[in-house]
Design goal:
Number of strands: 15
Helix content: 40-55%
Shape: elongated
Structural class: alpha+beta
Strand order of the largest sheet: 10-14-15-13-12-11
Number of helices: 9
Amino acid sequence: MNNHMFDAIMLAVMIPTALIIYLYEYPKRWKERKLIFGVRNREEFKNMGTSEKVDAITGSCRRQAGIIILVSFVIMALMCFIPDFALRMVVWTLFIMVDIVVLVIPFTKGNIEMKNLKKEIGINGRGISYAEFTNAGSIHALKLSSLIIPNIIGIIIWIAALLYDLGLYKILGNASSGDFAVSGIMGSFLLIGIVMIPIGVMFDRFRNEVISDDSDINANYSRAKKKNWADTNTFLVWVNTAFIAFAFGAMIFFDVEKATLVMTAIYMFLLLCGIGLFVKRNLIIEKRYRQKTSIDVDDDDYWILGSIYYNPDDKRLNVEKRAGVGATINMAHPVGKIIGVVAILVVLLSLFMLIWTAIISKTPISLMYRDGKIICHQMSDDYIIPEDSVEDIVLLSGSGELKLSRKSGYSMDPVYKGNFTVEGEKGCKVFLNLEVDEYIRLKSNGKIYYINGGSSEETENIYKKIKK
C-alpha cells in the first residue's frame, strides 16, 4: 500500500511539474512573451524574415521538449513496476535529477540559437541597463503580517507537539512514544514556513524593472509583479501551516505512515497549484504590459545558457529567474559562489544518503548472544538487551502479518527498525526482517521489543539460549 502511495505521489508531483515547465518555457505564441529561451523578446524579432526564423527555432525546440516529456512519462510509468522498493526510490531520485537537466536541453539549444540570431541581424549590445529613480524603493506589495501570522500558528502547534512528546499530557488517552517524532516533523515544516519570510521580503524588495520611459508604467508593472509574488508566498505559507496542523492530528490519531503519505500528496498538489497560478498570472501581466514596453534592456549575454546569471558589475546577490519561476543568484557575487558550492554539496549529500538508505535495506540483520546480552546488529549494534533485564519472552511466527506503524526509524522492505506502534501497541522497539517468518517478542526494562535475525534458525537459537 505504501509503495503504491509513493508511486502515486511521485507521479502527482512530476507530471504537473513537467507540464508546467513545458508550457512556460516552450511558448507556442512567442510574440506575446517577454523572454524567448532566456533572451529578451524585441521588435526586431517580429520583422519579416526574422519572424520566420524565430518560428523555426521555437517550433523545433518545442517539438524536442514534447518528445522528452512523452518519453519521461513512459519511463515514470515503467518505474512503478520495479519490484524492489529501495531500488525504486534510488531510480526515481536519479531520474528526477536527470530528467530536469534533459528537459532544459532544448531550452539551452534555443538560447544559443536566439543569441546567434541577434548577432545575425546586427544586435550586439551588452550590459545596457536602466534604473528607475522616481519610484525607487517605494513599491511594495507584501504585508509582512500575512507571513508572520500563519507561522505563529505553526509555532503554537509545534509547542503543543513538543509538550506531547515530552510526555506532559495525553490526547484522548494517546501518549507519546518518547522519541520526539511528532515535534521533529512539525519543526522541520515550521522551519520551511519561517524561511519563507525572508524569501518573501527579498522578492518584495527586488529592484524595480524598467520597461518604459514612463515612470507610472514602470511602477504599475513592478507593483503587479510583486503583488503576484506576495500572494503566492502567502498562499504557500498558509498551505505549510495547514499541513503542520493536519499532520499533528494524523500522527497522533491515525496510522502515521499512511497519513503522512496522503498528507504529503495533498501538500505537494497544493504547492503545484500555487505555482501554476503564479505562472498563469505572471503570463497575463507580461502580456498586458508587453505593448507598453518602450525600453529594451540588453543583458542577455550575462545569462549563461539563459539560466545562470554571471555579472561582476551587478552588486545584487539575487535576481529574478529567466528559466522557471522564483529567484536565482548572481554567480559573480562572492556570496553567490559560496551558495553555488553549498547547493552542489547538498545535492551530492542527499544522493549519498538515499543510496546509503538503499544499502541498509540490502544489508542482512542478525541476532547475536554475547556476554549475557542480546545484540541486534546491522552495520552497527542497534539494540543491546541485557539477558537479566528480560521480564518476558515468547517466540512467534508471521512477522510479515504484523501491523507496523513507524513513529521514527527505518521502514523499507524487508527491514523495519526503530520506534513503532505494533498491533495498536505504542512505543515498541522493532528490529525485524519481514522475510524471516519467526520473531521474538520480549519485554525488557518496561519496553516491548519485536526482534528477529537473518533466518528463522538464528532467531530460534537466540530464543532457546535466553529461555535456558
